[in-house]
Write a structure and sequence with these properties.
Strand content: 25-35%
Number of strands: 2
Oligomer: single chain
Number of helices: 1
Order of helices and strands: HEE
Radius of gyration: 20 Å
Strand order of the largest sheet: 1-2
Shape: extended
Largest sheet: 2 strands, antiparallel
Length: 90
Amino acid sequence: MSARPYPPARPDDYWAAYIVPIHGETEMEIVIDITSATGSDVELEALDAAYLRVEYIAYGPHGRTPQEQQVVLPLRFPAAAAAPAPATPG
């Protein structure tokens, strides 16, 4: 049995509605394409993180409920050499 028993998207990316059980979970995949207003990669190199807010409608036994998820996505990570040394008990 599949880990996700919900119907897959059709080839035209249409998703059929389905009821999410109480305390149930579902998933979505989001693809983000970041471009600068001028098309210059130099502007993008200065970005350390991106803020993403996703608004969607959850459909369940309670009906349609607007939902929102927010996350800060790191776009770069510090070099391992720049990481602080672990604290020593003392």
